[in-house]
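tool_call: predict_structure(chain=1)
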Amino acid sequence: MEESKQQKTLIDEIKLYEKKAKEIERRAKEKYMEQVSDIKQKLGKASEDASIKAKEVIDKVGTYVKENPQKAAVIGFGVGLGLGVALGWIFRKK
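tool_result:
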């Protein structure tokens, strides 16, 4: 009789731990989903900000090129030449 009572107590204790484990799992999932949602919002905001900045830079470059076409051509030539020399030097070493 005593052994059956101990088994019942043990079973009840196991069920209690199982309920606690499920509650902890549920809270962990909620916390995880909150963090994922926050990260998605932050990434969306950063992407939006980067897009706006890129558009501003493109507009500024376009305006500069329209106002100073000769300088823009010389700068473009210099950048292209510099990149070509740098890439040629890098690939020649390999």
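agent: Residues 28 and 43 are 22 Å apart (CA to CA). Proceeding to next step.
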